[in-house]
User: Fold RNA helicase from Rhodosorus marinus.
Amino acid sequence: MCARLCAFSNMSFQGSLLSNALLRSNQSRGPCLVWSRELRRCSMVLRSAEEQTYGDGGDTGKQSPMFAKGVSFVELGLSSGLIARLEKCGISSPTNVQAKLIPRAMEGAEDLVVASETGSGKTFAYALPVIQEFLNNPTSEVEARALVLVPTQELSAQLVRQVSMLETNAEVATLGGDKFSVPKGSLIVCCTPRTFLDRAYAADFADIRWLIIDEADMLLEGSFRRDVEEILYKFRRPLSVSYKRRMKRSGATPPTTSHPQPGQAQIIFLGATFPEWVGDKVKSVSRWIRRRYPDAVDVRTDLIHRINPLLEEQWIDIQDDDPMEKLAEVIRQGPDGQVLVFCNTADTALSVYGFLNKVPAFKNDVRITHKSLSWKDRLAEVDCFREGAGRILVSTDVAARGLDLGKNISHVVQYNFATNVVSYLHRIGRTARAGRNGVATHLVGQEGRALAEEIRGANRGLLENMF
Assistant:
């Protein structure tokens, strides 16, 4: 619990929902782009997820497109006891990704590539089948049944927090920091790839049924990829073309499918962005998966790689304006609720943090997180912000990916515009989550102008061809 009390935990959200005209503008971006240098007051009404509509006077009562129409958790195979615990947490209807993933994960017959927009409930989509199996087959000695690989320890801690909310006695363990072994009785183990290779013992994972690669596009790029490949090989050798050729040359008969065989773990790749770069020598993540797991089934939702229709965006041309003064103005005139400010470097984040703390309206109400902080300090800052101790969180992209920072984030501000489309999608995905409305304001200078113009001109907010 944070020592500092939340000064705004009971803030009321007043105003009206986004107008139909604004939403139409958001969904059909034309070639003529007008840059604004003026700010307008944004006000919002936050309702429960199932009450969200597209806008006043629009399709009255129309449910958020994130939720599965006419599908219940009962139909997905969840028990009444687990459903009751979900409802106690305010979750009464499955999202699209949950409706598509839960039955397939419970069957376990196919490897899956799950692409779903930010804030769509992917964590519960893969965690609920594991918990349900535990509830169906309670034993005195529980062995780890799912291994979840994530890029940061903050995401490990988040999984523990979310599963603990359900109070099912299903234990989630994290490896990392000062934890060097898997606690006995852990149902789900979550860690970074390098931590698993350094600290895990094969005997602890003999009964693994699910191997989950969360934020797959990040884990299958750069320094993470080799570690993830090594882990995948430990559980099941990928059925690559070269592997099948070697088997044939040795006289062995290669498997006819890349899907898991009896006793093998089902592999689930998840992400909110799956860049599909083209070119003979380009190592696209999607291509990497298809070559090694050719029979993996794609599970996609309609909003993947699209701008959320429940998100209002403001584009501010800062030109010769003082960007920090403009930032303060944006926050003052923005919606009530918590604000997440993105910067491109730790040094810039520190400067913005120092400036905002000197603004009388924000003094002592600002928190900060960036990669230069230790993971424990980052976790503490994020936890305090989530609990309401601080209205503003200044961050680099360390808080852009995967983190659920709470339901009170109504406003994301890009002090520095994202350097690529993937970063842009993850940043704006920190608000307008789980069917709620949100606002994103972009301060655009010369550096980010070309990318911003391209994004604004995207047809109906589809950004898939811009990766």
In short: Residues 122-136 form the longest helix (15 residues). The longest strand covers residues 311-317. The chain has 15 helices and 13 strands. The chain has a mean pLDDT of 84.
